[in-house]
Amino acid sequence: MWSTKKVIRFFHLLAISKTDVPWVAYYNASSKSVNAASYTNGGWQKQVYRTGWQCDNTFCVSMALNDQGNSIRCLSQPEYLEISHIENDKWTSATVDPTPGSGMYCSLALYPNGSPAISYFDKSSRHLKYAYTNGAAWQFMDVDLRRDIGKYNSLAFGPDGAANISYFDEENDDLIYSRMVDSPMGYPELVDSFENVGTFTSLAFDPVETPQSPIIIFKGKYLRFAVKVGNLWTIQTVDSEIGTGKYTSLKYP
Fold first, then answer.
1. CA separation for the pair 101, 178 (Å, rounded)
2. Among 57, 93, 111, 248, which is disulfide-ready with 202 (CB 3.0 to 4.6 Å)?
């Protein structure tokens, strides 16, 4: 049975460290700040990353933790997409994509070797892109060249090291999933098309119960849950209250 608990407001992303410490990155609209908090010693320890930040509903922040427990974040600004990491309590930032309007709905994940990768919606071309670094420079790929596709995306690496992305088909109001392997582009497939679904997606893999199966939570009329076993997607309703399901974040330890 599903259980729900109100934890935090605004745009938030969840990450879990190797020592099972939960981290949340989120935007505080009242103070216009990007923050992070970890749950240790029975309480939440908050740190402010940036103040004076104007963020709308384009998912301005995403977070991942490396094996050392250090936080890495991508942020979308009106002008460009950037990535930052903390080391020795000092933040270092760099531009990923300088194209104006790039980086909307960014989602950050780490390759098995710890190298960062980002999926994001490119406002100028109006389709989904994927960025990764070869150690010297950022490389860019088009995931889905259809227009107005790729908002509300979520990136996760499967146990085979392949990139998996869930995202919204705005033209048809559908949830799409793509697995990027042996191709410069993904292999998009329809997950759900029932009653305008596919926004606020969050993709993850359960390393214990179903390690090969992508799992997606997303918003339609309700908060919904999809898992792929073999070639079949099974879909359930998590919360049947109308309007639930915004700002979802799914992670497994």
1. 23
2. 248
**Under 8 Å between Cβ of 38 and 53:** no
The whole-number pLDDT of residue 223 equals 92
Question: Residue 168 in 3-state DSSP?
Answer: strand
**Cβ contacts of 232 within 8 Å, gap of 6 or more:** none
Distance CA 6, CA 166 (A): 24
Query: What is the CATH code of the structural domain delimited by 12-239?
Result: 2.120.10.10
* 175 pLDDT above the threshold of 90: yes
Write 189-192 long-range contacts (CB < 8 A, 24+). 191/166, 191/216, 191/226, 191/228, 191/233, 191/235, 192/218, 192/220, 192/224, 192/226, 192/233, 192/235
**Considering the chain, what percentage of its residues have pLDDT values greater than 70?**
88
List the chain domain ranges: 12-239
Helices (H) and strands (E) in the chain, counts: 0, 20
Total Cβ atoms within 10 A of residue 224: 27
| The pLDDT value given to residue 135 | 80
> 3-state secondary structure string, 169-218?
ECCCCEEEEEEECCCCCCEEEEEECCCCCCEEEEEEEECCCEEEEEEEEE
Per-chain mean pLDDT for the chain: 82
Q: Is the pLDDT of residue 3 over 60?
A: no
Structural contact between residues 150 and 106, judged by C-beta atoms closer than 8 angstroms: no
